[in-house]
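Tutorial, part two.
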Amino acid sequence: MTNKPVRVRFAPSPTGKLHIGGARTAIYNWAFARATGGTFVLRIEDTDPERSTEENTQIILRALRWLGLDWDEGPEVGGSAGPYFQMQRMDTYAAALERLRERGAAYACFCTKDELDAKRAKAEAEQGGYAGYDGTCRDLPADEVEARIAAGEPHVWRLRVPKDHGPIEFDDAVYGHMAFPAEVMDDMILVRTDGSPTYNFAVVCDDANMGITHVIRGDDHLSNTPRQILIYEALGYDVPTFAHLSMILGADGKKLSKRHGATNVEEYRDRGYLPDALVNFLALLGWSLDGETTIIDRATLCREFSLDRITKKDAVFDETKLDWMNGVYIREMDVDAWTASARPWLAAARADGEGVPAGVTVAPTPAKDELAAAARETHVPGEGVSPEVWEAALAATDEAPEIARGAYPLVIERLSRLNEIPAKLAFLFWGPNVMLDEKSLNKVLRKEGARADEALAACRAVLADEDNAWDAESLQEKCRARGEELEIKPKNLFQPLRVAVCGNMVSPPLFESIVLMDRADVLARIDGVADAAFGE
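Running the prediction step on this input gives:
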């Protein structure tokens, strides 16, 4: 419908955090602008004074920045079409209303809420339904209107929908040709009694004044589109191209909501997802590159995104797929990127390790359902520890980057989310102490006939010999050789050592982990666990 340079906008309301559905809409607008060499505008629709807050605005801006969605015009950036907060644009709505009045396209309505409610009740009782505003004030004499306004009588301003208007038609970039009968469109309110604009009026004024060429938004706005087109026509403005996006559903086929788990962007950040992975995942909820490619980097998305590849089919939010995709992105990180991204999670692992009681503590093994629930929990770095401990953990992590770099090859292939780091690596920071898993204690160390005490003693002797280099490969080979002398199988030799050092039967590669720790601490752990498992 237009050959103008592309200008798109994302216009969230600061009445809450940035929802996953809103994030996808932002991604599509951003990617379309980048693919077409256009402009991505961020506008804050803050006309709901009771629910819009500065805190929510900052949360939305922070989430967009974390996702890496840079805007060309908007808050903190500026631009020639500002201001970019609706509450700062009231003069533009007043000017648009005056334009409509001059064109005879708007009129004052003095009907009270009680009068309208009574008409609605009567229509529903006698006619089987309410057909909308009946136009009581549509043709009041001009002098009467002016007199009543001058007298201070409360009123709203309504759009005068032409009686002879044919079907309201437009070509949606996703849904194709759409047509709505004009006769079902009543004379909608444009400006309320307090002078504030309604949503449909404000959004049209903003989009027109900001030169928006394409409106890409959720299909929950589809019913608003014919009403907005009527306003565009009444103002004499070009109608933009519309592209309505299908809903995002949970795995149960119902609209994504809190009952499905996390719903806002920062929850996913705090659960250890990478922004590139989340952008990739959300981009594919309704759009595809070629129907086959799953991993799509930002450069490709910004080069190849097009509206004709968006599907009308509702998308299903599959968190298992997101976990897999996030794991792919984690595995593609080099050690420097890993160290930077994992920093708060490594600090959390250090802080968790600081909380381990001195000596050997035997902790009950959680049931499987409890483990599953724990795996779904959000582990926010710093949560549950004092600010002093958290700052110290961050500082220690920065001061000892060799631990982070050493842990990189141990876990990089084993992570689907960064928030798994504390559980996998906290043992590195226990010092001489051990949080011993009860199941591992009984199944490995106290298993009858397993010779766990001999295995642990043999490995300890190798680790204690300071003539042996503190090197993973050589220590493992020397322990293996000692086990062969004692005719202890490798599994029965190394598993007791793993439990003694790491606290349970599952850990990153054992000797690669051991050499990241202090030799004295490793020996102290072995001694403490041996006393707990085999002592009288």
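The longest strand covers residues 168-172. In part three we will examine how such features are distributed along the chain.
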